[in-house]
Amino acid sequence: MTSAPPPSSKPFTLYTSKLCPYAHRTELALHESQQFDNVELVQIDLLKPREAWYLEKINSVGKVPALEVSEHKTIIPESLVIANYVAESYPESGLLPNDPLERARVRYVIERAAQLIGPHYPAALLKRDEESLNGLYTSLEELEKLFNSISTTGPFIFGEKLSLADIAVAPFLARILATTDEDLGIVPAGLISPPIPERMQKQLPRLKNFFDAMKSRPSWASTFDEDFVRKMSKQAFLARAKA
Hints:
Layout: E1 12-16, H1 21-32, E2 39-43, H2 52-57, E3 66-69, E4 74-77, H3 79-89, H4 100-117, H5 120-127, H6 130-150, H7 164-179, H8 196-203, H9 205-215, H10 218-223, H11 226-242
GO cellular component, one term: cytoplasm
Protein name: GST N-terminal domain-containing protein
Keywords: Oxidoreductase
């Protein structure tokens, strides 16, 4: 795409990428709020420099996602800002509790999960060594403890009901599992044993049940393409290795 897409007749236009966990958050929020049919999706290739029209008209820093709200001719950047806007605009979704204290708990989990996973996941893929991969797994162990401290039964973070916290965390867990599988070739075989996906299946039952519950939702099937994520992650890794 060398020029901006034509204006959409739909209420929303989401500039997104199937590769990006941040963009995935916003797609899940829109789907769970029954707004996915009201969104025009514009896929942005993250493996190429952003084109001029995107930098000039959508997001000057070049990031995805960005949500264009047609009625107000407004563009909202940043995944959590978009997800909160959607949840608050469509409260019937139940993604955010009505009680301010419960909302604060949801937002804390989102922040804490980002603190745990944020530094370790990119480091593990960039360094591809035993220390960084074990550091990533340790962050998942801490996430398991966090989830159990809130609800031991789940399947979602706060129990039986889906919240914005689930939507914020699951896309990152999905990509960790998809890209640390030794069969993909990013992580060298035998570097840590068992590999992270197998460890989670056997040793982190709360995270496993959580992820299984997320995968069972129609919103997940509509928004996550594991084969694409694996293929493009491998392509990005190979390009980085040659640089």
